[in-house]
Design brief:
The chain is α/β, with parallel strands linked by helices. The protein folds into 2 domains: 221 residues, DHBP synthase (Alpha-Beta Complex); 99 residues, Rossmann fold. The protein contains 10 helices and 15 strands. The longest helix has 17 residues. The termini are far apart. The structure holds threonylcarbamoyladenylate and magnesium ion. The site of threonylcarbamoyladenylate has 30 residues, from strand 5, strand 6, strand 9 and strand 10.
């Protein structure tokens, strides 16, 4: 089945479109919709049959739990059994927005949504289309990123269709997403606040609200998010990541030349300030290295563009892990596996 693709103006969302999308949700169907981070693939979170359709359409393994999207604060208390004070504070400050809170689940949440875990991931998005879809449907909406499992997350309706044509019912096309990288996922364990996945909400800003915040996978090996598989967010092309540093331009040229001399079709994902240094290569500009926000907004789009060019290997320049740069580097490392130079 071809998905119905409906254009929506986020500034003036047509109620008739919302009514049709809501009907799909109530018929246990799948609706892809824009959020402020990336496009989500939504189904009624309280209906196991609907939720199982998400796993099928994405070819997502059954041990990778879903985020439940809500529109009213009351639903936080209906779907979570306990809400620690740190979670309350973060929700007060960052909802609606790109922050997901992992909390002890209530019995209302089907086990399939959480893939059997006793916690549920909850998020209140700020995108107007997402908000109004949840409001009109009147149910919480389970939604992972609307890509095939393992592929870069979609930041446009086109990306969704490229991955999921024939597998879902409807796409609400609200244009490019603002942030371009997924939400920050936070869990609370015995009084500790732990970032399981860096994302659209800057970790430094979380610290301003709750004080100490740990990042999983840093200094000490804290548990990291289930379903954060090593080869994630990957384009078809291989990725070699060149670490940020004083000799980054030279190293990038060396690595790219070496790969090219071995017959590989090479693309360079460059920092804006270095973009003029790679004559003769297929260069795409991620953004100024110091501007994590711009880099985040372009990352997934560029990875997909390299695939469209049939590039075999992307040599990616790393950026400083400040602000959203932390999330950008997290995704690049996952996409590159162990190949950091
Ligand atoms: O910005 C976003 O978060 C987007 C938009 C659509 O909201 N959604 C998204 O969903 O990125 P997904 O499924 O691609 O990523 C969900 C992440 C996974 O890393 C998963 O492991 C984690 O959230 N997660 C979900 N439930 C969890 C739980 N109970 N405990 C720990 N991690 C959980
Ligand atoms: Mg995803």
């Amino acid at each position: 089945m071809r998905p119905r693709v409906l254009k929506v103006d986020p500034l003036r969302v047509d109620p008739e479109i919302l009514r049709q999308a809501s009907e799909v949700i109530h018929n246990r169907g799948l609706v892809a919709f824009p959020t402020e981070t990336v496009y989500g693939l939504g189904a009624n979170a309280l209906d196991v049959k609907a939720v199982s359709g998400i796993f099928e359409a994405k070819k997502r393994p059954l041990d990778d739990p879903l985020i439940v999207h809500i529109e009213r604060r009351e639903d936080l208390y209906a779907l979570a059994k306990e809400v620690p004070p740190e979670a309350e504070k973060l929700a007060d400050r960052f909802w609606p927005g790109p922050l997901t809170l992992v909390l002890k689940k209530s019995d209302k949440v089907p086990d399939l949504v959480t893939t059997g875990l006793d916690t549920v991931a909850l998020r209140m998005p700020s995108n107007a289309v997402a908000k109004k879809l949840i409001e009109t449907a009147g149910v919480p909406i389970a939604a992972p990123s609307a890509n095939l499992f393992g592929r870069p997350s979609p930041t446009t309706a086109r990306h969704v269709i490229d991955d999921l044509d024939g597998r879902i019912d409807m796409v609400l096309d609200g244009g490019s997403t603002d942030i371009g990288i997924e939400s920050t996922v936070v869990e609370f364990i015995e009084g500790r606040t732990i970032v399981l996945r860096p994302g659209g909400t800057d970790v430094e800003k979380l610290r301003l609200v709750v004080g100490r915040v740990e990042v999983a996978g840093e200094a000490e090996r804290i548990k990291s998010s289930p379903g954060t598989y090593p080869q994630h967010y990957s384009p078809e092309a291989d990725i070699v990541l060149v670490a940020d540093g004083p000799s980054q331009v030279n190293e990038t040229i060396e690595v790219a030349s070496d790969l090219a001399s071995r017959g590989r079709k090479v693309g360079i994902m460059a920092r804006e300030e270095h973009a003029g240094s790679f004559d003769g290569f297929d260069v795409k500009v991620l953004g100024p290295g110091a501007d994590g926000k711009v880099c985040a907004s372009r990352l997934f789009h560029i990875l997909r563009e390299f695939d469209a060019d049939e590039v075999g290997v992307i040599v990616a320049e790393g950026i400083p892990e400040k602000g959203l740069g932390l999330a950008v580097m997290n995704r690049l490392r996952k996409a590159s596996g162990p190949d950091t130079v």
